[in-house]
Amino acid sequence: MFCYQCEQTAKGTGCNMAMGVCGKDSQTSDLQDLLVYLSEGISQYAQRAVDLGKTDKEIDLYVIEALFTTVTNVNFDPASISGLINKGISIREKAKKLYENACKAQGKSPETINGPASFNFATSQDEMVKQAATVGVQENQKKNGNDVTGLQYLLILGLKGMAAYADHAQILGKEDPAVYAFFHKALSYLADNPTDIGALTGMNLECGKVNLRVMELLDQANTGTYGHPVPTNVRITPVKGKAILVSGHDLKDLDALLKQTEGKGINIYTHGEMLPCHGYPELKKYKHLVGNYGGAWQDQKKEFNEFPGSILMTTNCIQKPAETYIKRIFTTGLVAFPGVTHVTNKDFGPVIKAALDAEGFKADEPVKTIMVGFGHNAVMGVAGAVIDAVKSGAVKHFFLIGGCDGAKPGRNYYTDLAIQVPKDCVILTLACGKYRFNKLEFGAIGGIPRLLDVGQCNDAYSAIQIAIALAGAFKCGVNELPLSMILSWYEQKAVVILLTLLSLGIKDIRLGPSLPAFVTPAVLDVLVKNFNIMPVTTPEADLKAILKK
Length: 549
What we know:
The protein is of the alpha/beta class.
């Protein structure tokens, strides 16, 4: 096992022990590497078929689901992953036939393709694990060196993050053939073991550009299905009664659960990245969607242990469940953990039964609320007031402080930074990093809340649209706005959002709490020279540097 795809990787260099910091064992990690390698092989055929005008939906979906499965804190079950690999062997054969038939239809001879396209994948789990040792990060480092490997894995991790968003969008019926084509293009490119630093950098930026389209599709999917988020006060204290807690990111799962629990005397609570769901009109209309419980993903062992109901994990981030609640936590979709009941076909009967069997909250607690729902549509609805506030000097600066949260020391930086932001400045936030400060009181400027919760991590799209609209209003570029981006990262969705921001030419981004292990000094030098990206330091020093401009 060697894995350095998340921010909490051991010693800041990589997990190479029996159990990674995230909790996945070496078998799971190795099988995930093999699954990515297999996806590259499938895409070698699929990309060539696309070039000849032929596509296949099953092939496209397999690849994005395979990549999403390997995102941090999604699937910890080696049996599940080995089953996905066996399915992928058949999918690769289907992709090969698709390509060969496309060649035949055009009177061309198919290429003989090397690499993962022709690799003889094992079909037993034990043999798969042995094979994985030949295709992982360390083998790549021996062959190509750390710099090339780092850029290759930056692209792989960006594709994993983008796959998560593409999967959520297609579940709600929003797709773009050009997006699937890029997945195949990029994976096929990686299968050829590219080593040119400039070309690799360019492909990473192209990934970021395509991800902007994917986030647009997901925004259209969410708002087209559930309406544009509106500013909404969300209760963060319990209500007496039976309870189900929903964590992850999937709005459709929450919608299905709300429908299935209507009239059953069960209150539904969101957790983690599901908090923004309260702002969507077609979700907030359910009276038994009563509030949000707890905070970010890394506190779940304490929070889930104390929650007196059942728990549904719709996507990442799941951690190893404690014995005290393993019988009342459930996974669905691509999420899996050994010993945890997996629910399929959006039939949440087992989750509902577990909630009814559990104790539930015995009493109401005093009402406390926080506000969500400041997506691009809501903010643009008061754009005039925001622009006037900037012109009058009432608002001096905007800070985007958001991204993934995590357990690694140093993340209190974001709390301290938000607290120290001057009172004539507005804070935009998104993703689970908001839990570092979203229950604090920030007040308002001329009726504009100083803390605007834009939404989930994918709602970086909203933040980008807000920035572009402000730049248009002030007739300047985004980099000339009184706007600073201070981002926290943990997993691969944050990686692809960063690539998107860089593809837009956005500069001076501060990233923390530590830089990715796969970003070597040479790679960092490229990013600094082109985008002036920098690590966070201290809240005091960073604020001083930002506000002196």
